[in-house]
Amino acid sequence: MRTSLTKMFAITATTALLAAGCATGTGVEAESSDVGEVAADTSATVRILMEAVPDTDIVQGLIADFNAEYPDITIEIESLAFDQMRDKLIASFQSSDPTYDLIVADNPWMDDFAPAGFLAPLDDRIANTPGLDHEDFFGPLREIAEVDGVTYGVPFYNYALGYLYNEPLLTGAGLSVPTSLDELVTTSKALTSGDQTGLAMQPQRGYKIFEEWANFLFAAGGSIYNEDGSGALDSPEAQAALEAYIDLYNTAAPENSLNWAFDEAFRSVSTGASAAMVSYNWNLPALNSPDAGEFAGNFKLAPMPGGKQVLGSWTWAIPSNSASSDAAWAFVSWLTSKEVDVSRVIAGGAAIRESTLQDERVLAEGFGADYYDAIIAILSNAAPLSEGAGGEEMIQAVGTELSEAVAGTKSVEDALKDANDAINSIQG
Amino acid sequence: MRAQGMMRGVRGIFLITALVVVGFPLVWVTLASFKTPAQLNDPSLIMFSPSLTNWAYVVEEGILQAAGRSALVAFITVAISAIAGSAAAYVISSYKAGGTATRFGILAAQVLPPAVLVFPFLTLAYVTQVNDTLIPLIFAHLSFVLPVVTWFLIGFFDSVPRSLEEQARVDGFSRFKAFLLVVLPQVYPGLGAAIIFGFTLSWNDMFYGLILTPTKSAILPVAIAGFNTFRGVELGSMSAAILVAVIPVLIASFFIQKRLVQGISGGAVKY
Amino acid sequence: MLLPLLVVAGIAVGLPLVYAFYLSLTDFSLTQQGVAQIVGADNYIASLTNEGLWGAIGTTFTYVIIAVSFETVIGLLIALSLQKQKWARDITRAMLLAPMFITPIAVGLTFRFLLNDQLGAIPYLLKSLGTNYDFLGSGKALFTLAMIDVWQWTPFMVLLLLAGLESIPKQPLEAARVDGANAVYIFRRITLPLLTPILSVAVLLRSLDALKVFEYVYATTRGGPGTETETIQYFTYQTGIQFFRLGEASSMAFILLLIVLPLIVFLFRRIDRRTSS
Q: Which of B19, B221, C88, C210 has a CA that sits 20 to 30 A from residue A46's CA?
C-alpha cells in the first residue's frame, strides 16, 4: 500500500507541474491593427462579456440595427453581475483559447490590463475610422481609456455620481439644493425628522464607502492624489471631509445602516424613507420609473455639492487574444458613432459624447433638458478614484480605513494616515 | 408524572420555537416570490394580491435548465464518490490501509479556500481540453464530496463485525464478493445518508460553478447569484429561484429522512 | 480496492493541490505577462508577516467557535426533543432540514434584506416591540453572521445527533432509570459519552466547512465594518482574484492548511485514545 501511495503522489506531482509549465503566462504580444473601416460583408462572431446593467440591455436592443448594416456579423452578449463578470474575464485572459472577442473594462482595471498585454492598442484603428470624432467623447472618459499614452479603449458608459433628491421633500422644507459641503450637511440634517432621514448613505466597507466619501473630499477642496502621484489624504481637507461624513452618518443617515450599499440606499430613497442619496447619474430614470413606487416622478439630479464628483467609467476594449478583432471593432465603432449614440441615450443609456447631450432629439425625447444639463455639468468636472496600477487594491485598502473611522474603531487622523500610507505603498 | 408532563410541555414549546425560527425566513421568501418590486420594500405586507411575474421571469431565464445541470453534476459527483468512497472506506476500515496520511490527507481539499484551488482546476481543464464541458466542475465537486463520503463510510464499516465477513469467506466468497454482497448491504443506510449530504454540498456550490462552467450553462446557485445585479438585488425573482432550488430537495428529504435517520443510527459513526 | 479512491482523489484533490503549491512558490499574478518566476519562500514570508492574514484567521476562528458551539448545543436540544416527539414527526423533521438546501449566497442575501433596518421584517418586529438592534454594525456584525450560519447549519447537527441518539442501546438507559437516576444524570453519564463519536465527527465536518465562510460576508458586509468580518476565504479571494496576486494567495491557503490539519489529527488522536479506554 505504501509504495503505491508514493507512486501515486509522484505521478500526481509530475502531471501537475507539467500542466503548470504549459499553462502559466499568456505572453501574447498585443498586436496593433490599423483597420478602421470594416467591410460590410465581413463574416464573424463576436462574443462579448458585459455587466448586467441597464446600459447592457440597451446595447442588446440595438443589435438588430447593427445587423442591418453588417448582416454577417453575429453578436453574442453574455451579461453577468460585476464580481462574476470580473472573475470570468480574468479566466478568459489566462487562456490561450479565449472566450470573449470584445469586452468592457472598469476604469481601475485599465492600468493593470494594458501593461499585462491583455488589451489591443486602438490608436491606429481610431485614426482610420472617419467620423468617429474621438475628441467628442468627454475628456475624463478618454483619459481613462489611455494608459501610458496609448489608447486601449472607447468609452461605453460613465457612472459619475451626483446628488439624487426627492424634490417635493426638499422644497417642502423650504430648502434648496446644496452647493457646498456645509450646505450638504445642514440640508441633510434639516431633512431628518421623524421616520425620514436626510441622506441614505452607503458606508459599506471597501469600494462603496470610498466612492461616496470621495465626493465629500472633493467638495471640501481636497483630492486623492498629489501632483506627483503620491497620496493626498493626509490633508486638512480630507480630515474635514471625513468628519463631515461621520457627522452625517450619525445624525442624518438611516439607523443601523453601516453595511449599506447601493441597493439599500436606493430602496430607502424610492420608498420615501430618505430624502436623498449620492449615486450614479443614470439612476434617476430608475427612481422615476412608473413601477418604482408611489414617489416616482419626484426625483431630480444635481451635481454634487462643491461641483466635482467621482467618476467611474466602463470602456470597450478588444482583448489581444480576440478571435474576431475586426468585427469587434466594427461593432464598437458603430455603437459609439454619433448617430447611434443619440438613439442609445434616448433609450436611457449613460452619456459618453458631448454632442449627444446637445442634440435636439435627445433633449426632446429623452428624460428632460435639465437632466442632461446636470450630466454635462457633472462630466465636465469628474475624476476617477484610482489612477495607476493596483487600483482595486488601493480602493479596498482606503475603503477599509474609512470604514474603521465611521465605525468608530479608529480615529479620523489615524484612519486617514493609514489610508494614505496604503496609497503610497500600493501605488507608489 | 407531573415532571414528565412538564417536560413534554417544554419540549413542545422548544420545537415550536425552532420551527418558527427556521420557518420565518422561508415564509418570507415564499411571500416575496409573489410580490412586485414595490411591494417588496414594505416589511409589513402580508396580505396582498400575488403576482406570478417573478415565477414567469425565472422560468424564462432558464432556471429549470440550471437546476437540471446542477442535478446532473451532483448525481455524477455523488455516484463516483459513493463507489470510490465505499471501496476505499472498506479497505481503510478493515485493513487500516493508507494509514493516517490517506484518512486525513483527503481532508486537505476541504480546508483550502476554493479561491485558491479554482485556478489550478481551470488551468488543468484547459490543458486537458475539457474546459467547455461540465467535467472540470465535477472534479472540483469531487474534491470536497469524496472526502466527506469516505469519512462517513469509514465509521460505518468500522461497526460491521469482522465475523460477518469472515463467515462469507468461509462460505467461499472472494474478498470482493464478500464486500459487495455481504458487508456493503450492512451499510446501505449509512451510504444513503452520505449520499444526501454529498448531494447537498454539490447542489449548493457556487464558486467553482461560476468559473468552471462553460458560458451558456450556468448551474443553479450561479443563476441565483445572478439576481444580485448592479441595479440591486432582484429579490422577487431571487426568491422564486430559491424556492425552485429548495422545494424538490425538501420533498425528497421528506421521504428519505426516515431512512436517513435510521441510516446513521444503523451503525454508530466512529472514525 | 483503494485504487479508485486514489485515482479520483489524485485527480480531484492531488493535482490541484500540487499545482496550487507550485503557484505559492512563484510570483504568479493574474495580470502578468510571461511565465511565472519561482520566488521560493517569498510569498510565505510575506503572508506570515501580513497582519491582515492573522486578523482574518483570528476572525474566522472566532466565528467558527461561536457558530459551531451554538449549533452543537441547539442541535442537541432539538435532537433530544425530536426523539421523544409523538406528533407530526416526519413533517417536523423534514421542515427543520430545509435551511441546509439553500445555496449560501441566497441565504446571505435573504438575511441582508430581512435584517435591513428600513425594509426588513425582523427589525420591523423588533421595533414594534420597542427595541432596536444594529445587526451589522460595529461589534455585532460577526456575531450576526455566526447566527446566520447557525440558522442554516443547525439542521445538519440535528440530523447527525438525532441518529446518534437513536442508535444508543436502550439497555443502559433502562437500567439507570430502573435504578432511580434522574434525566440529567442519565444524560450526563450515559447518553453523552455514548454520543461522543458522532458528536466529534459532526463538529469536525461542520467546523471545516465553517472555516470556509465566504458567501455570508460577501452578501452582507464585504468584510466590514473595518475588518471585523474579514474571514480567511474573503481575504484570500481579495488577494488572489481581486488584486490578482494568486501566488501569494496560494501561500496563505497552505499556511492555513499547516495550522488546521495537525490540529485535527491531534484532536482526533486524543478522542480516539479516550474512547478506546
A: B221
